[in-house]
User: What shape does this take?
Amino acid sequence: MMKSTFSVFISSATMVAAWNSLSPFATSTRYSRRAVTSIPAKLGDSVEFAKYEGLGNDFILIDDRDKIEPSLTPEQSERLCNRNFGVGGDGVIFALKAPEEGNYDFTMRIYNSDGSEPEMCGNGIRCFAQFLKDLGADAESYNVNTLAGLIIPVMNSDGTITVDMGEPILDGPSVPTTLTPNSEHNSVLEQTHVCNGKEWKISAVSMGNPHAIIFVDDLENDIDFEKDGPALESDTSAFPAKTNVEFVQVLAPDHLKMKVWERGAGPTLACGTGTCALVVAAIRAGKIPRPGKEGVRVTLPGGDLFIEWREENNHVYMTGPANLSFQGKALLK
Assistant: This one.
């Protein structure tokens, strides 16, 4: 551990209390705070952070609830995510003040480990909600402003978090993809496309960010993950904003298994928006039936998420864990 770079509170029993005492913004009231102009942190500054993970998809959380813009730049966030020279993480998430207009409690922004900014992150927003609770902004649910719109995480009594991820975007150009629509709603469903010298059947779905879903018979033998993943991610001839890539194997009518290559982060242990997108694609392609409220079990490298695509309102609901790992201070390099 690089003691010169950051310090860590080890006791999980005292981490939340310690963070509340450290943070000048901890509060138990519902959620009024004067916004201040964000002054970018500079080289040598120390930054208080908390590290959370959702099924191994790990994030550095920064308490910027008195600000309207992140206190770190994308470049600083990229360095902080470095697992050898920084804290390490798949991204940095900022808890920001809610906008003046709209029924929001907070704003969430995220920079990926390569410094790019995605519209949303499913595992990230569960970590964001748990972070808010641990800071003392305790509530049954939060109305969160994201670049993908309003997202509502609900804190369950069993410690899991259910997130209303909204409606899937099926219209091809809106995903966005240039692949020719071939199904209802002007959507792209198992459309043939050649990339990396191979022919793929791609389904395109957006959950506020783009996803290319590919069904395979065998996740271990049918793909070259380390080559096919980045090739498809960066194939701007088909996905002009690049894309997240999910390879999916159907194990049972209510159980799917996936590997994900995330846009801007590469291989990760879990992807919440991708899990939602692939369940939508699997139902639409007739791979599985639409489940009831128990949802579809999706096994990711980091564990299981449960996804329900609710017919009555067309919303997708994701349920899974989010856990505090450690917290401390990091020196910006």
User: Anything to note?
Assistant: Residues 122-135 form the longest helix (14 residues). DSSP finds five helices and 18 strands in the chain. The chain has a mean pLDDT of 90. Helices lie at 12-22, 74-80, 122-135, 225-233, 272-284.
